[in-house]
Specification:
Radius of gyration: 13 Å
Helix content: 25-40%
Shape: globular
CATH architecture: 2-Layer Sandwich
CATH topology: Alpha-Beta Plaits
CATH class: Alpha Beta
Distance between the termini: 5 Å
Mean pLDDT: 92
Amino acid sequence: MIAVVGHLVVDPAQRDRVVDLSREAVLAARDTPGCLRFAVAADPVAEDRVNVSELWVDRDTLERFRGAGPSGELGDLVRDAVVRELEA
């Protein structure tokens, strides 16, 4: 299994927009065979943070789903990302 955990750093005024723009990716991931969990949520304490949590059955499944990361408007709104992959 592959766990992807971390957070995105965004302008606090744009945090809800980032979560909204992530909705399609969340739905697509959850419909992908091999995706066990995929969540993007506003951090309840840090106003400039959006938490990311994913769980995949294997690396091949994750790589087939994932492109180069956020792009377009979503990519423009992300100031920084601290995301790690853990393999079990």
